[in-house]
Amino acid sequence: MKKTEHLTPRARQEELVVRELPDEMLIYDLRRHEAHCLNQTATSVWKHCDGKTTIKGIMKSLAKELQSPVDERIVRLALDQLAKFHLLDEAEALSVQLPPEMARMSRREMMRTLGVAAAVALPLIVSISAPTTAQAASCVNSGCTPGGIPCCVGTCKAGGICTSP
Amino acid sequence: MRRRAKAVCRESPGALIATALTSSWRESSTPLSISEEELSKIVPLLLGSGAGALGWGRVRCADLREAGAARELHQAYRLHTLQAEVHQHEIKQAVALLRLDEIEPVLIKGWSVARFYAERGLRPYGDIDLIVRPDQRVKAEGVLKNADLKFYVDVRHDEFEDVDDQRWKGLYSRTQLLQSDALIA
Question: Chain B: nearest CA to A27, how far in angstroms?
């Protein structure tokens, strides 16, 4: 297994549908039928995972891009999350591990440690699920989730088919 | 004698929804100016009718954007935006498969309407609607049935079943051929 300093993580490209918005990135994993939302920091780290750049290199690129110093631990945290959400190449994902002291921390503790006033936000990846109050009959409760995305518009027919109204 | 129209209360859900959706489909719409309480009243209605993303379009630049109810609209926007993206991917696959069997489909309904909105995802749709020549429909259904698509592709549209050759030619002549990139533009 590569030492962490020699790691050159690579962003997974296969079977992902990606949509970049002004302040976040949406990704649909066709393999796992899961939808995720990456904040700007996580997005920037992911985009720098080209399979050739080390963690220190990603850190420097991010600092230049954001015009603000970036703590290496922020990059490691982002990589850890990207690996957990299967957004890195499998081989690289196995090597990405948070240092034990970071792995034990809550997000709040991490913010305190890294400096709440830091210009760079902590990386964040969340799974996207249907909004709770959308659970009128037309959405999640219908049990119809073609491709993993709830049928929030239209009618659910037999066989999990979501048809337009 | 003219009857006076009934006054519509500002607080009625219908009036609030009308306010929330005014110009929501445009590229630049003004921030929504209603109270958090009023927003909470209409969010379930917006979400249930598939207008959550449109509602978010009015809320995202407003002070309301951090409200609990607004977060649900934001989630709907994310979901519908991603759904539109996946649809694009699926449409390209479906069209490519049909063309391999020399079937030329035409996109109708959901996708063809949604593309005129300011952003993909503002106008969500549940499935992908295509029409093909009536004599190719059964073959098209077979091709699509065997494909590993995540969304239902509907080629069965009764209103086009009796269209003869001449009328099909006329219909095709009025369609717009899109480059593959246009599906992701």
Answer: 7
